[in-house]
Write a structure and sequence with these properties.
The chain is an alpha/beta fold. 39% of the residues lie in helices and 22% in strands. It has eight helices and ten strands. The chain has a five-stranded mixed beta sheet with strand order 3-2-1-4-5. It binds adenosine-5'-diphosphate (ADP). The site of adenosine-5'-diphosphate (ADP) has 21 residues, from helix 3.
Length: 254
């Protein structure tokens, strides 16, 4: 038997299938305008990818902001709980998760059983999130995935605005004044780190620290955050799927 975890986020919908021991399938699509449609589409797509049917699925657990729109799921669980569970599944020694997604960032502390003991969340503004980087990458006419490579080694421009709209004007002014794409990109990544650090420094961050969410794919942000924190930060190719993994594990245990 299998369980399915579906995390419908603000930008991307992620799903995984769990067989009780390991993740046997994972998939990601843009959330688009309808969380319900994308959730349904993704559920069918991931089942087809390993040729299983509904009878072989014991539970479907939904998380992420779009979980309320999924009529076919057996249970809804908050992202915070799912991230804790997902991180514990990946490595039981993880005690802190830093998550930067499309529209919010959070820091979650867990005990040795993967239970959440404390968390903080910034969901009040887009600055310091993946959406902020998407907007800025668009202005710079580069792909979000290339931000890290472009910024590496460049002297960062100072980007002081802590608001996406003002930061956008700042970037446009910097471009007009002849600043290079490399140094602007470096400044933008620094600004995400600054914002994230101001959140995570409010909690006593303990080892091991795991970086999740789409922004964790940015290796320079991971490096800069680790320097600021004075701790090693780990991530994996499952980092963006952490919420979906936690949901699937919860579903299997149910
Ligand atoms: P959500 O759950 O809110 O949909 P995700 O955790 O799936 O968010 O992350 C989506 C975000 O990750 C997008 O806003 C995107 O800009 C960002 N992202 C994806 N790849 C990268 C990358 N290589 N560097 C920086 N940000 C990235």
């Amino acid at each position: 038997m299998y369980s399915v975890g579906i995390d419908v986020g603000s930008v991307a919908a992620k799903a995984v299938i769990f067989d009780g021991k390991k993740i046997v399938a994972k998939d990601i699509i843009p959330t688009g305008w309808s969380p319900k449609e994308s959730g349904l589409f993704l559920y069918d797509k991931i089942k087809d990818s390993i040729h299983i049917n509904d009878d072989q699925i014991k539970a479907i657990v939904g998380t992420g902001y779009g979980r309320v729109s999924l009529p076919f799921i057996s249970k809804k669980v908050t992202e915070i709980t799912c991230h804790g569970k997902g991180a514990h599944f990946i490595d039981p020694e993880i005690r802190t998760v830093i998550d930067i997604g499309g529209q919010d960032s959070k820091v979650i502390k867990m005990d040795e059983n993967g239970h959440v003991i404390d968390f903080l969340m910034n969901d009040k503004c887009a600055a310091g999130t993946g959406r902020f980087l998407q907007v800025m990458a668009h202005i710079l006419e580069i792909d979000v995935d290339d931000l890290s490579d472009i910024a590496k080694g460049a002297a960062p421009e100072n980007i002081n605005s802590m608001c996406t709209v003002f930061a956008e004007s700042e970037v446009i002014s910097l471009m007009a004044s002849g600043a290079s794409k490399e140094s602007i990109a470096a400044g933008l990544l620094q600004s995400v780190c600054k914002k994230t650090y101001s959140l995570i420094s409010k909690l006593n961050v303990e080892d091991k620290v795991f970086f999740s969410g789409g922004v964790s794919k940015n290796s320079l942000i991971k490096e800069l955050l680790s320097e600021r924190l004075g701790k090693e930060i780990i991530s994996s190719d499952l980092s963006q799927f952490l919420g979906a993994i936690g949901a699937a594990v919860i579903g299997y245990e149910k």
